[in-house]
Amino acid sequence: MKKILFFLMFLILANTSFGAEAFFRVEGNLTVISPLANAISDSADLLEKTKSESPLIFSLKVNRNINNGFKVSVMKTNSYWKIKISGSTQQNIAYGLYSFLQDVAGFRFVHPEQTVIPSGISLKNISYNKYPNFANRGFHLHTLHPTELTEYLHAPWEAEAMEKIGNYFKWLVRNGQNVFQFYLLRSVNLKKWSEYALEIVKKAHKYGLKVGIMTSFSMIQQNAFQFVTLFKNNHKKQIDEKLAILFNSDWDFVTIDTTMGEFLPDLRITHRQEIQYLINKIEKDYSAKVFLSTHVIKDEKRILHDGDKNVMSGDTGILIHTVMCYALTDDYAPAYENKNFQFMYNKLMRYSRERDVWFWPESSYWVAFDNSVPNLFLSYLTSRWDDIILLKNKGIAGHLTFSSGWEWGYWLIDWAVARWSWSGDATLVKSEEDPSDIFLFLFRDIRISHLFKKAFDLQMDFLIDEKLLEYMPAAAPFSELPPPFNRGFQPRPELTMKKILNLKRSEAIRVIDNKKLTQLKAFSDKSINISESIDLEIKNIKSKDFMDLIDELNNALKVTALRAKFKYLLLTASAYKSSGNIKGYNAKMVKASSVYQTALKLVKEQERYYRYDRYISDRFDSFTSYDFGYLYPASELFFWKREMEQLKQEQFGAFFIKIWDFENILGLSSLF
To answer: According to the UniProt entry, where is the signal peptide (predicted)?
Structure first.
């Protein structure tokens, strides 16, 4: 990395009547490298945008006696604030500097494109240490999905691309992260892309980030990058040629999926030697780390599985995956035809005794489940918190959060996870003992945080404890196909419109008073009441930034509540229709249409908070296997409208008013 030498003992970076006076002193005869230099410059720019009654004098020092992490000390003198930040490395000093800004000075690094800057800085004497819960901590952007940075990462030559990518790298470092990974797509022109990828890697390294790409040996789904086209000759030659192009850039690690896709064969049993060849080439010839990815699918659920067949070297790591808003040790996690993820936890602990293991959980899922519907599931906060608490002292080498989009409140989940990846010996806010305490830290307002905590508790009570969450998503793309292709990805509810329509008249009548349906309505009503209270409290918030964040999150909660009411009405309408009560059916459908219109109005209001004006809610020719942005289904409440038509026309097949290109998603053509 480029080294920058500060010849002056004091570096004056902000000293005007408009911003806080800030002076930075780097102690010792220290050659400052890029990550710390970037952090000093960035901090100065941020402080320039706020005010302080007294100057801020920063003393930055490498202290080898600190085992890992950093120490921040804030002390008032007669005429200025003295802020001492010591770190075990320069990178940790940078993390300490950003910790001061966020934990003490009131900045909030909530989103790559939005930072909340306090109108003024009010400090107190404080001293605290922080240390990372995981040596490697960061985010995997799941660019198989058409999320915010997917197009920019695959077309970095486009206008704004490197700026947007750089803003994300800055967000990672501001929040104490040191790892970045994204999924490379085979739809790129690899030679052209590799020339620009060099700049992505260099920029990441300047921020002190390890950067990796996720690939596959020959996965056919969703345009995943393949080292090998299975039905083409000379697989080793294919591997050599693609590696030579990819390693035009200095990737720190490469993750490889050895399966053909979810529920599809694991190629370790049929192409073991070639996969070993690929791993060996990366590790030995290119000196990069290799990880193998995992799926939350038990071996017996696959068409062909590897059992215990091992292709890894002693240096190869593994990413242990979980999906959706379920924790490793939850008793109930009915995703991907599982009862829970205990088997993944067992695998994680077993592998961690012999090799590097990074935990790879999700902060959003996208496909017809959360932000594409849209639903804001606050239970992601609980599952991610529980897993971090479980794993932080078990010697797990890394925590890599699998992210599929930030709007509709999912920036909150990523920001919270990044924050929780560090621990400290001092409590910096009144309470940080519960995942819902993130609201108090975010807003610094007891009344608002109390209301969001009530919304959080309500979702946990109804959606998780009462198992209503499985009613909230839309049908997964393949779930409506005929057997044996209708594999289970999402949790499947006990009652569906199709099932109810097939009931006998007497059975259908009983559905009207079914406990699950009445609970859906009760959850919706209680949630709307909380949101109305939040609306009243917003008026007392002085900061426009916080007002907007509160309104944005509250809109997401409102639409989630309306989604519950909408599903209650559709399922009840199904029961009336099945029992022959057409008057009752029509009345419920009219109400469902009204709820849809109310929710759609909120969606249009929410769009003013979107931080990206391209690639997220419109149709376009994408590098992914989808021809739209990840919020396109939400933009017109596509799934809601489709569900009403399904009930009206009694059509429940996968190809009825479809949004998915099944051929492109499955990717069979990539075999040849």
So the answer is: 1-19
